[in-house]
Structures are given as structure tokens and as C-alpha cells.
Amino acid sequence: MTLIAIITTLILIPTLVGLMKIFEKAGYKSYFALIPFYNAYIWLKVIEKPIWWIIFAFLPYINVFMFFLFIVETAKTFNKNLLWEQALAAVFPFAYIPYLGFSKDEKYQIKSQRPEFKKTKVREWTDAIVFAVFAATIIRTFIFEAYTIPTPSMEKSMLVGDYLFVSKLSFGPKVPNTPIAFPFVHHTMPLSATAKSYVEWIKLPYYRFGGFREIKNNDIVVFNYPDGDTVSLNHQNQSYYTLVRRFGWSMVNTPTAINPQTQIPFGPVVARPVDKRENYIKRCIGIAGDSLQIINQDVYINGKKAETKEGYQTQYFIVGKNNSLTGNELQELGLSMEEIETYYNFARSDNYRNEMLNYYLPYSTCDSAFTKEQIGRLSVINISNEVYAKLKNHPNVERLEKLTFKKGIVSDDIFPYDGINYPWNQDNFGPIYIPKAGASIEINLTNLPLYRRIIEKYENNSLQILNNQILINNKPATHYTFKMNYYWMMGDNRHNSADSRYWGFVPEDHIVGSPAFIWLSMDKDRSITNGKIRFSRMFSIPN
What CA–CA distance (Å, rounded) separates 248 from 419? Predict the structure, then answer.
């Protein structure tokens, strides 16, 4: 039995026993409380509420809210009208309901027999606010949650400024790891950059209720950022582990130490539970049990070339015939101001262009494709296949070549950060096996970098290497059986996405939900009077 089931049992059994005695006091048979469905019908009679409430009592997740509502209404039948009394009943029903049922001093009364209780305006407002917060929290936790697209990693499938509702029901809602938290915020209190919005006095293990479906290849998924278990608070836009690889553990974990790149102190380092890590949205390229490989940007799943979605976007080298393309021309093609700025940084600044081309050209499959004269007119542009088709025959475009990093070129930031055994980059990666719950693999010192974080961090085992032998939980290990399913997430904007290529697998306990629909889309590059609201995207279903 899981810990969640044990906790639920410890709450429900004493509550049910107390309810049996309350039914007796109300004039009903005590065993009615033990009859499924019928007990809800009798309970509604005891608290004198409309019978149609029973519909909500059996709706998944809404019934959690209804249970606490029934508890509060039961307290009222014993003249418990003060706010602290009702709060006590709601927070500790497993103790308060038995007290009401077994105490000889507590008398059940129907509504017409109870003394009138008149609420003050303050109490009315307090009750309304508590009701709204509690109901919204249940909905946000178990049904759906509002979400904003903050970065261009999924362009053009999802755009910066898209506001969407994420369905928690699609893949099944999770029980919060940290149930005691300030409502309506994620991990940090309002008006603060460091104050936690949650406490860890009670930490619940991973448990997921049944969902409508399983995750499939190419689904867009919202999940908790796997690398976000540890955060350098002054550099939350960067992975803590990337900072450690670049600057060393000692420097990053010294709050007063200065980051050489930003000239800002690293600041405090904090750990976050799974449900309080940043929310990311990507496309699930590979599911548990798949084998994945990337060859010259093309993704292969189980040896077959994967479907490329319509919104797929990547970088190209572009050579203009005479002048660079104008901003209006690029906007008409659908490029954002950020993408246009990147294009112009290459086109207008010789220093910037030379610096970036020295980085790109030697490692690209196009390293010998351009003459010296063409390089003087060379820039980089981030576009979709649709825009590529338009630019290819543009009167001011001489050449357009995909920017692809060569096979064998090592990128230090690419998972698993072992360039000797895994000389991979963002465009040529793998093959790699995506673990499936119950599957066993052979582990050795060569493939351990791929799965070490899973074994240690995600599945909570101790792991050490002693005399070239792998020890798991202090026992020699040559094989490992995975406890959870894992997924491989990638952005549709392939050269502008921090995804599984950089931090590896996404465990199933990090999965949040699926985007249901876009309810508002705001173009940050336009004003209200110039079409800031993208009406064509409103109430659309994400790809």
C-alpha cells in the first residue's frame, strides 16, 4: 500500500466511524454510512441540502471540494458556526467528526430548531473568500491551470504571449508534493524574488490519479523542469548544473561570488520539490521504451524518421544579393522582433558576425559552402519550413542553407556531458534508450552517465563507484530496473530551445498536463492599436 493510500485510509476511517454516530443522532441507521452512494444521499438529508448536490459529490476531483463542504455543513448542524470551529472541522475531519458523533454534550439539531446565527459583513466576506480560494485551488490542482508561453522555444507551434489552459485530467492529476502552500502562486511569494511560497512540513510522495489517456509521440506536454531541483536564485534563467560545470561547485555555491559572465553574485542556492520546479512546455518526441537518435537535425524513433510538425523552426545561413532584408519584409514573413534582431546583429555588425561565424562555420555542414565574398554578406536567420519556401526564391536572397552542426562535433552543454564516449551536439545526438518502468538494462561505467541521474535523483538510490565497480544501495550492480516511465522533450524551435538534449530525461512524476486551448494571444511586438491581440489564435487547440 502506498503512503498516499495509508494517509487517505487514516483520514477516512475515523471520519466514517464518526459519521455513523452522527447518522444515529439524526435519526438514521448508523450502517447507512457504510453503504456507497446511499451514504451520500442520507448525508445530504442530515445536513438538509438539495439532493441534486449528489451529482457533484461523485464528479472526480470536484468531490474533494464537496467532501469538505459536507464536513462544514455537518458542523453547522451542531451549532458550530464560528469560523475557527468550521476551519477545525475542515482541517481535521478525522478528529472533529468523531468528536461530534461520540460526544454526549454535542446535540444534532435540524435547521428550524437551531438558534439563528447572523453573520457580520466581515464574516460574510471571509466565508466568500475562503470558499473561492478553496474551490479555485481544487480546480487548479486537479482539473486545469492557466499558463503563459514565456519563451520562443516552441515557435511557431506555440507563440510567446499565448495564454492557455493546461488540462491536468489529460494524463491524470498529481497529488501535490507540498500541499501546504500560498494559493495562486508557484514557488515564490508575490513581491519577492527569494521567499518560498510553500512549506515542507508535510511532503507527500508521488501519486497520479488515472487520466483520460497516455502520452503519445508528438504530444505537446507541460512538465516540471527536471534540472530545476536546485536553483541559484540570482540566475534562475540558467540551469544550476550548467553553472556548476562552467564555474565549479565552490564558486556557484558561494553567494557572494561573482558570475564572470553577468558580473552578478550567484546568490543563495535552494532546492525545490518536484511540484515547485519551473513549468516547461515542449513536444514529447520520444516516449518510454523508445530508442531515439538525431541525425543532421532529423529525429529517428526506433530507427524510423519521425514526423516533422508544421511549426518546426530552425536556423539557416542566408546570403543577401545586395542589401539585407528590411524589417517590414521580415515581419511580413512572420518573424518576431527577437528573430529580426538576431538577423540584423549578423548583417550589420562585422565584429559580431565574425565572432559568431567563427563559432558556427567550422562546425557546420556548410563550412566550405560559401566564398569569402559571400561570407561578407552572410547572416543567420531562424525560420520555419513555410518561411524557407518563401525566402528561397526571394529576389534579394542569393543563398539559403540549413545551419547543421556536424556529427562528431562535441558540445559541452549537451547531455550526458561526456564528450569522449558521447561526442554529441544538438543536431547529431544518440542513439539513446528512453527508460520504461519495469525495463532492465545492463549498466557499466560507459553508459552510467546516461542513467546516473535517474538512479540517484529521480529514483532515490545511493550510487557510488568503488574500484571500478558500480554500487547501488551499497550492493554491486550490473543491471538496473527502472521504477518510472521517462520521456524525451524537445522544442519545435530547434536552435532556440533548452530541452532534453541539454538536461536529459523527463520523469513521469514531473508531468503536469496537456495544453487544452489558447484563450488569449498577445503579440509583444505590436501595440493594441496595431493588432496586438492575435484573434486568429484565440480558442484554438495547440498543435
Answer: 18
| 83-91 helix and 93-102 helix, angle to the nearest 10 degrees | 110
pLDDT in the model for residue 62: 81
Exposure b/e, 455-465, CB count within 10 A at least 16 = b: beebbeeebee
Q: Which residues pair with 379 in a beta bridge?
A: 318
- 161 close to 524: Cβ distance less than 8 angstroms: yes
Give the cell for residue 295.
541525425
* Neighbour tally for 454: CB within 10 Å: 20
Give residue limits of the domains in the chain.
3-121, 291-433, 440-481
Give the HSE-up count for residue 451: Cα atoms under 13 Å, Cβ half-sphere: 29
Strand partners, 304: 301
Cell of 79: 451549532
pLDDT digits (tens, 9 = 90+) for 443-452: 999 999 999 9
Query: 3-state DSSP call for residue 241?
Result: helix
- Which pairing describes strands 479-481 and 269-271: parallel, antiparallel, or unpaired? unpaired
- What are the beta bridge partners of residue 513? 222
Residue that the C-alpha cell 542513467 belongs to: 451
List, in sequence order, the alpha helices (H) in 421-498: 448-453
